Amino acid sequence: MQRREFAGTILALGAVAVLPRGLRGLGAAAAPRTVNGARLNAHLAALSEFGKNPQGGVSRVAYSDADKASRPYIMQLMRDAKLDVSVDAAGNIMGRRAGSDASLKPILFGSHTDSVPEGGMYDGDVGSMGAIEVAQSLAEQNITTRHPLIVVVWQNEEGGLWGTHAATAELTPAELATVSRSGKTIREGIAFLGGDPDHLERTRLTKGSLAAYLELHIEQGGTLEKEKLDIGVVEGIVGIHQWNVTIDGFQNHAGTTAMNDRHDAMLSAARFIEAVNRVVTSEPGRQVGTVGRINALPGTVNVIPGKVECTLEIRDLDAKKIDSLFAKVEAEAKKIGAMNGTTFTFAQFTNNIPAPTSPAIRAMVAASAKELGLTYKTMPSGAGHDAQDVAQICPVGMIFVPSVGGISHAPKEFSKPQDITNGANVLLNTLLKLDAA
Amino acid sequence: MQRREFAGTILALGAVAVLPRGLRGLGAAAAPRTVNGARLNAHLAALSEFGKNPQGGVSRVAYSDADKASRPYIMQLMRDAKLDVSVDAAGNIMGRRAGSDASLKPILFGSHTDSVPEGGMYDGDVGSMGAIEVAQSLAEQNITTRHPLIVVVWQNEEGGLWGTHAATAELTPAELATVSRSGKTIREGIAFLGGDPDHLERTRLTKGSLAAYLELHIEQGGTLEKEKLDIGVVEGIVGIHQWNVTIDGFQNHAGTTAMNDRHDAMLSAARFIEAVNRVVTSEPGRQVGTVGRINALPGTVNVIPGKVECTLEIRDLDAKKIDSLFAKVEAEAKKIGAMNGTTFTFAQFTNNIPAPTSPAIRAMVAASAKELGLTYKTMPSGAGHDAQDVAQICPVGMIFVPSVGGISHAPKEFSKPQDITNGANVLLNTLLKLDAA
Fold it and tell me: Is the ipTM of this complex over 0.95?
């Protein structure tokens, strides 16, 4: 109820004043369109039957039988939404809809439907089912856009954005030979889903070939819920840098080696993990730093570890900030090593650059939320998304809806039906603004 | 050379004044006996052929083929030393020699010959070969002791003192079913070595049934080498308390969960490991504390660990000190958990009480070293030894010789031939003092 009152206020103020130049033609008084929220949530529930976990959520790992089994259902929903369905060479599902002006570039929107093992039924699925619902609503409401539209369900997002990567870049032989969580290589997985790994060039989305890409997604963090907001206007997807960290000390007997004679790699690892937290939290901002994996060798209760291997991950919207945080962490590691004669080695294995969203699209998302009477805030995406790859070839926008408890990648992942409907409504209206721009 | 001069000085001063009452009958002027050091070191080299590692040292894990293959060689050495050889019900090798007074209790001396995987050729072997060499020297020098003597080679010390445990206590069915490193259960291992696991009571060494137990061993630490000393007079074997530590936090997405919203079990583990080091080094003494094993769950670069499992080990000669250090560690853990909403659980799985050696035997070891012109110091054993189990049934004494670089349980484990000979000479003379006491 509070929402509706708020909406009235916003509409009374008139949204035109805050809209960017390209949108003014829309007219402030145009009533926002809405999707069929009940149908959308029913589709989500039906999709969750594929790979359902006993304890809730889904295990629908890319290239698994559950993943494959869900695809005819998804394609049927697309056909019901009057989309022309095909599977591209990379194994992504595409549903096309003609626009009124064949000279305009298509607007692409969608998400993914694969999950992590023992994951939830919202990550990716909300954006995929939301995009199909938007297409069905357009069909039902007899709206023909100027731009051609493409609804996309990307394959294997959770394994490392493989569907978008294969659609936007040339995969190396090594990449095609990468073994995914399913046990299949990327090449085998693409073929398994009906793609054509030997002719990926046929599906290539080249720079400038699309008008824009939109993606609705659950936040996966707790910010929107904690701040009691409906919508997140994503300002960008953080850069993700990941390192393998090796700490070399000297393995020795835990009973006979005096404390001050030790070169204990475990103690250095502990001081390092503490330092990562201290450095990352020592300055304002939304940067995060995590040590998620650790292994001590030989790993026995009565032996001083001679070697520890762990990971380091730093994320931020600003690549320079990541670099400066890492430099500080590295300096701390050097000091820590000097304390007990251990050495640190860092080997970076992931270097995802930050992917800012289009400021114009951000404004359209915000305006759509306002018109729908929804509260919102601008925020980064701390998680990686298909949109970050697509951002290499066209302007992108992302819409977040709240995740209860900030829980994600777990069976307890949950977003409220009304929030999901809100998100699809924002997606629909953002799409219409983009089309009109 | 320096040693010899030192020996002369000590002998000139006369050792009687410092000997305990029972030893005075020996007479200060009695020249110390010596073993055949060249033969002893040749036996050690020959023994190291069984289970030899390509990179040096041995892998002669208890109940392995290499372990079994070495035993006929060991038993032949015992027979060469005029010992009456048998394998007891627990699989320990015993070599007996009659004394002149059948009413006296036997003096037991020896060590073990099993190794850790990729271990060294000195841990246990020096004491076992040293004991046999002492017996052979007695035979060659026509010395008949008053007490009967038993040279023992205990089975499976490295897997948890199983030979001494089976000889001094009743094994539970669960203990007999314990799977050792060889893959065999303790029951299977005992049978494999020619013991009789169904009649362990036949081999039981009851409290008071022995006059004393002596064990020569490498130090396994670097103290003697660093302080340029020949012999360690072991004042006791430290108590070893071991815990499994579980830290429960909350698993969450490493990209979307703000730093101050985290219940990061890894960060708490890091602070805990640092606290263990801080607490243990915060007071004087030779106590040691170690975290040797760690596992973070789910153990992925991009997930905040929801659970960490690690070990804690504290050793000291004083059980009360172990208890007080643990109480401090536990209090630190509580504080650390409160910092970020994680909880610590401690489950103790080892509680080896400290085993002090006999002060009288310590004095005999020291006196023997002095008479031989060797430098020495009194020191705890940070490592566990067969002697700690035998200490439950009779007075025990231990003699340490230096380990180069303090390295043990590794192929690089090394003790100098002269140091090994020195140790056997101290063992021989300590035995004679004990016999005369």
Answer: no
